[in-house]
Each structure stands twice: as C-alpha cells, then as structure tokens.
Amino acid sequence: MYLRVFASGVSSVKNSVVLLAMLVGGEFDDHLEWPMRAQLSVRVGKSLDPKSVVNMHCKNEVSKPSEDTPLAFGYFPHQLCEIVVMNDSLVLCIVEVTLMKK
C-alpha cells in the first residue's frame, strides 16, 4: 500500500490536501479471501489530538489487486498544514488499516 498526496487538492476537493491510498499486489494475495472490506485512518503530523486523524473513505469492497488499485480517499484543509509542515515536509503516519472479510 502507498499514499498518493495531492497538495493542491483535486478538481472535486479544493483548498485541501487530498490523500489517495493505493493497494498493490503482494506475494501472499493468493492466501487471502477476496473481496474484503477495509478501514483506514491516517494521522497528520505527530500530534496525538484526535482532530489530526483523517478517517479515509474506503471502497465498499476491495478486490484482489492485479495492478495498483485505489483503496481509500481522504482529505484535510490547508489550514492544518500550517501546524504539520516542518522543513518543507508533511508528516503523515498511517494509524490503522483494517481489512475484514466480506
């Protein structure tokens, strides 16, 4: 899995940093039950404040990835960047990824 970060937003979400979680195939995919459901949360910065956690909107069902597959979408306002950007770097921490059987 990896995160794509759109610092200037996208056409449907302006004035925000947009996060897109992508699922990639792996060596153990054949041992998992597909499709499955997912939940994903990302912490913005190092703060433990619950307001800094972005709960990403996941697809209803996740199929076995044959190539990079979109998994979840989330965003936060640019105002939050004033707090979490340090030395021109944005600190993101994946807090929780939960994959559940369908």
Distance between the termini: 20 Å
Largest sheet: 6 strands, antiparallel
Percent of residues in helices:
under 10%
**Dominant shape:** elongated
The whole-angstrom Rg is: 15 Å
* Secondary-structure element string: EEEEEHEEE
Can you give a write-up of this model?
- This protein has one helix at 78-84; strands at 2-6, 16-23, 36-44, 53-58, 69-77, 85-86, 89-90, 92-101.
- With 102 residues, it is mainly beta.
- The chain has a six-stranded antiparallel β-sheet, with helices on one face.
- It is elongated and about 40 Å long.
- The model has no long low-confidence stretch (mean pLDDT 79).
Summarize the structure.
With 102 residues, this protein is mainly beta. It has one helix at 78-84; strands spanning 2-6, 16-23, 36-44, 53-58, 69-77, 85-86, 89-90, 92-101. The model has no long low-confidence stretch (mean pLDDT 79).
Q: Which key terms come to mind for this protein?
A:
single chain, 102 residues, mainly beta, 6-stranded antiparallel beta sheet, 1 helix, 7% helix, elongated
Strands, helices and their partners?
Layout: E1 2-6, E2 16-23, E3 36-44, E4 53-58, E5 69-77, H1 78-84, E6 85-86, E7 89-90, E8 92-101
Antiparallel strand pairs: 1-2, 2-5, 3-4, 3-8, 4-5, 6-7
